[in-house]
Amino acid sequence: MSEIIKTDVVIIGAGPVGLFAVFELGLYDLKCHLIDILDRPGGQCAELYPEKPIYDIPAWPIISGHDLTEKLMEQIKPFAPQFHFNRMVTKLERQADGSFHVETDEAEVFEAKLVVVAAGGGSFQPKRPPVPGIEAYEGKSVFYSVRRMEEFRDQDILIVGGGDSALDWALNLQPIARSLTVVHRRAEFRAAPDSVKKMFELVESGSVRFELGQVSGLKGEDGQLTHATIKGTEGETDIPVTRLLPFFGLTMKLGPIADWGLNLHENLIPVSVETFETSEPGIFAIGDINTYPGKLKLILSGFHEAALMTQAAKHIVSPGERIVFQYTTSSTSLQKKLGVN
Ligand code: FAD
Questions:
Q1: Which residues contact 309 (CB under 8 A, 6 or more apart)?
Q2: Tens digit of pLDDT for each residue in 217-252?
Q3: Residue 126 CA, ligand 1 centroid: distance in Å
C-alpha cells in the first residue's frame, strides 16, 4: 500500500461541481485532493458534451462544456488542488479519530478531515466493444484507460475510436510504442480538430497507421494478445497487436458509492439543504449525486451547494472559530489567497 496522503478535504469527482468546490473551500483555507475515474477534469461536461454550448451558466451567455471546464481550472489554480485521475474511489470509512480513510482502486490511501462526494451520476464505466472473447484479455492486454504509460512502452498498440480519448492517447503513446494503429469505423472524428490534424500528420510520416473499419476478432493466449483482425473496406486483415485500447464511450453506474454506508434514495444521496451534509457527519454531497426537495440537476445548483457546504465544512474543521462572511470584491485577505493582491 502506498504512503498515506493527508489532506483537509478529499473531493470524489472532478466534474464542474467538484472543481468549483475547490474554490469555495480554498477561500476558507481548506486544501483539496480530487479523485476521478476519468483521465481529465470536467465530468459530464468533458465526457458527454465537450463541444455543446451551455446557455445557463450565469454571466456566460454561451460556453461549451470544454471551455467551462477550462475556466473552472483557471479559477481554482490559486488553491493548487491535487488531482488523481484514472482512479475510482472504492472505499470510504470513518476512522476512530473522526477523520476519513479513502482508498482508490490503485491502492492509494488518503486521510481527510472531510469528504465531499461530487460524483454526479456515479462512476463512468467503459462500454465494452462487441468483439468476441475480449473479456479474456481485459486487464492483461486490453485496457479501457491508460493508468501507467510504461505498460505501453515498446508494445504494438491498437487504439479503437474517434473521440478525444482515442486521439489524445494515440498522440501520447506513439513516441513510446513499437507500433501504433488507430482504427475507427468512420472517416470523421469527434476529437478536437487539432488532435485529428496531428494524428494525420503522424499517419503521413509513417509513425501511425490508420485503418477505416472495426475490430472483428482477437488472437492470443493466456490473456496476452498477439494479433487483432480488422474488418475494413477491403475485407479482413490481421495485424500484430499486444495492447488494445478501445474507447467506445462510457456509461454511468452508481458504482461503489452504494457501499459507503450513506443513506441513499433512488441511487441519490439525500442531504440537508442547509449544509449539504449526508446522513454521515463530515461527508457532504453536492451536484448531481445529491437529492433534496426541489433539487434541479443543473451546474449552477451545484455551485450554490458548494458555497453553502463550505460554511458547514469550515465549522467542522475549525470548531468555535467565528466564520466571517466576506466578498471577494472587497476582502483583501480573500484577494491575497487568490493571488490578486
Ligand atoms: P459530473 O459532471 O457527473 O461529474 C462527476 C464526476 O465524478 C465524474 O467525472 C465521475 O467520473 C466521478 N466519479 C463518480 N464516482 C466516482 C468514484 N467512485 N471515484 C472517482 N470518481 C468518481 N447542466 C446545466 O446546468 N446546463 C446545461 O445546459 C446542461 N446540459 C447538459 C447536456 C447533456 C448532454 C448532459 C448529459 C448534461 C447536461 N447538464 C447541463 C447537466 C450537467 O452536466 C450536470 O448537472 C453536471 O455535470 C453535474 O456536475 P457534477 O460535478 O455534479 O457531476
A1: 21, 24, 116, 275, 276, 277, 284, 286
A2: 999 999 999 999 999 988 999 999 999 999 998 888
A3: 16
Residues 48 and 113 in one domain: yes
Is the CB of residue 37 below 6 angstroms from any atom belonging to ligand 1?
yes
Burial category of 120 from C-beta neighbours within 10 Å (exposed 0-12, middle 13-18, buried 19 and up): buried
| 256 and 244 in a common domain | no
CATH code at 326?
3.50.50.60
Which of these three, 203, 218, 248, is where a domain ends? 248
Give the Cα separation of 89 and 85 in Å (integer): 11
ipTM of the complex in this document: 0.99
Angle (nearest 5°) at CA 192 between 51 and 251: 60
Cell of 53: 454550448
- Edge-first strand listing for the sheet containing 179-184: 235-240, 224-232, 209-221, 179-184, 156-160, 243-246
Residue 83 in marked binding region? no
Residue 119, ligand 1, Cβ within 6 A: yes
Instruction: Specify whether 133 is located in the same domain as 243.
Output: yes
Place of cell 454511468: 252
Same domain? For 155 and 200 the reply is yes
Check whether residue 108 and residue 255 sit in a common domain: yes
Q: pLDDT tens, 48-82?
A: 888 789 999 999 999 999 999 999 999 999 999 99
Evaluate: CB of 41 within 6 angstroms of ligand 1. no
